[in-house]
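Dear Dr. L.,

I hope this message finds you well. Following up on our conversation about the binding site, I have prepared a predicted three-dimensional model of the protein together with magnesium ion. For your records, I am including the exact sequence and ligand specification that went into the calculation, followed by the structure tokens. Please feel free to forward this to your student if that is useful.
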Amino acid sequence: MNLVVGEKVERVKTGIPGFDDLIQGGIPKGFNVLLVGQPGTGKTIFGMQYLVNGALAGENGIYVSLDSPNEIVKSQAKQFGWDVDTLEKEGKLSFLKIPLDKPKINLFDILEEEIKAAKAQRLVFDSLADFAINIDQFVIPLAYSALPSIASEDEQRAAQNDKTYRYEVMPTLGQDPQGRVFYRGHSERRISYLVVNEMQKFGTTNLLITDESIGGQHLTVDGVSEYVSDGVVMFEFNDTGGEILRTAKVIKMRNTKIDPKMRSFDFSEKGISLEQ
Ligand SMILES: Nc1ncnc2c1ncn2[C@@H]1O[C@H](COP(=O)(O)OP(=O)(O)O)[C@@H](O)[C@H]1O
Ligand SMILES: [Mg+2]
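The resulting structure of the complex is given below.
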């Protein structure tokens, strides 16, 4: 985070009509902002619009997807007339599908490389929930491991003594050596903490998509990302006596006076625009 107390906060405009006004003109540069909501509430399109607007304004962006192939993500954008193929050819927009069929994926090394190559300033990560579900495919820093005691003595020593030591394969998430799974909840929390923490190091301004927890006591499925992220935007379907409205509201944005009122929105042929 490049924030100095007392100085003016540098803000990144999403360019999504009606949204930047809710957060004093934009997202503070370098922030991690969660987009939380159930499927179909508009998170992917919001994220794409943020990147397209950035690309058109001279800030390169990357859409990182764990689940959907690039062509599907792009086809969603093309419905709104966003010429993502041209922006991609011009190097202003990149699409990165993380292949989940290969084990031992070094996600943060891949992202760091891509961000450098693309000179990206904006990033959308879709999604934290998919990352947690596929956790066994990734290698993660040992310090975040759910069960560091399973690591060999050598590995533990390396992690303690060598500050540059970053990655070790994580044991199967949430299972102790007997295969019992009672550590699972604890592990998932650490996983989201890890992603938010690692993402902060890139200097990009990130939208992290995740799923809303249904009927739980927390907002997100992992129950922790809303605390560790810098901002949270909630997407919902709201039943206003017969009519179902899509709504968005900012419930958290550090260093920012927010307008927390829920805004309804619709998809026009140009994408999302929030009602005043
Ligand atoms: N061109 C469009 N016009 C109207 N609604 C659309 C259009 N494109 C997508 N939608 C709506 O947006 C939903 C998908 O939005 P999306 O951003 O993919 O949601 P999420 O990522 O939250 O699952 C679709 O289910 C559909 O209802
Ligand atoms: Mg989506």
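In brief: The two ends are 30 Å apart (CA to CA).

With kind regards,
A. P.
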